[in-house]
Amino acid sequence: MKLADALTRRPLVLDGGLSNQLEAAGHDLSDALWSARLLADEPEAIAAAHRAYYEAGADIATTASYQATFEGFAKQGVDAVSAAELLRLSVELAREAGAGAGREVWVAASAGPYGAMLADGSEYRGGYGLTVAELERFHRPRLEVLADAAPDVLALETVPDTDEARALLRAVRGLGVPAWLSYTVSGGYTRAGQPLTEAFALAADAEEILAVGVNCCDPQDADAAVRLAARITGKPVVAYPNSGETWDAGARMWRGPAHFSAGRVVGWRDAGARLIGGCCRVGPETITRVAAELSGTDRPE
């Protein structure tokens, strides 16, 4: 079943943070490629992390390509041909991990923002000093490769500002794969300070975009953002905030208390969210609770 059709039947459960699951399994993600490094070094570790989320009740696995870019791989000595192979592998690993789920599951190919490639926390600031056209040229080649690997959806995620959103909306045109557009936000604004009314409106008439919403933000910020995205766009909403902790880019660690509560996902669903899960620091146990809340049972569907 196509993902768009599935969304008309029930809300779907997204996975949680891939990096925290890999770190919990003992893998070092301290270099600039983050979880993408394991595509070359330990691909089975990525497949195992995807399986853990499917087993927890996730309907959709998000690939290990968030920080995987031609430019980022080149800095690590990986040529363009090999980089393209690793991008395709990210989709294949998620697909293979879902083959034993015993139910229909889907794959979202992650495309992080330009700031993710910089690995300096700038995806939480935006405003890189690049034009929309320059950002489009950065994103299009990777999106072409990911689309060619035939995921069910492209996850244009952790987008910090409207310039990058405009670039991504241009970059996905004609690829033949639907996409969701998900901003990282603070209060009622993008991380770069633009009103979310403006940010969400950009995608309202984009036929390639099947869902709009937020990710990697404080769970509390998702409450109002989901309602607003539904009202502004009329599209299904995607919501997968982080644990509530704050990323310290200098120390490369999360700080502060976690306060993601599975109990609040019913509110997101009722406000229009159809793709619901967690981002950084939200693990399989929490996704199991999210699935249970959304299905109204004591266990995921």
* N/C terminus separation: 17 Å
Stretches where pLDDT is under 50 for at least 5 consecutive residues are none
| Silhouette | globular
Strand order of the largest sheet: 1-12-9-8-5-4-3-2
Q: Please provide the count of β strands.
A: 12
Pairing-aware structural class of the strands and helices?
A: alpha/beta
Strand content: 15-25%
Gyration radius, in Å: 17 Å
Mean pLDDT: 92
Count of runs of 4 or more consecutive helical residues:
13
Helix content: 40-55%
Query: Major sheet, described briefly?
Result: 8 strands, parallel
- Element order: H for helix, E for strand: HEHHHEHHEHHEHEEEHEHEEEHEH
Question: What is the topology?
Answer:
Blueprint: H1 3-7, E1 12-13, H2 18-24, H3 37-41, H4 43-56, E2 60-62, H5 70-75, H6 80-98, E3 106-111, H7 114-118, H8 132-148, E4 153-159, H9 162-171, E5 179-183, E6 185-186, E7 189-190, H10 196-201, E8 209-215, H11 219-233, E9 237-240, E10 246-248, E11 253-255, H12 265-270, E12 273-276, H13 284-295
Parallel strand pairs: 1-12, 2-3, 3-4, 4-5, 5-8, 8-9, 9-12
Antiparallel strand pairs: 6-7, 10-11
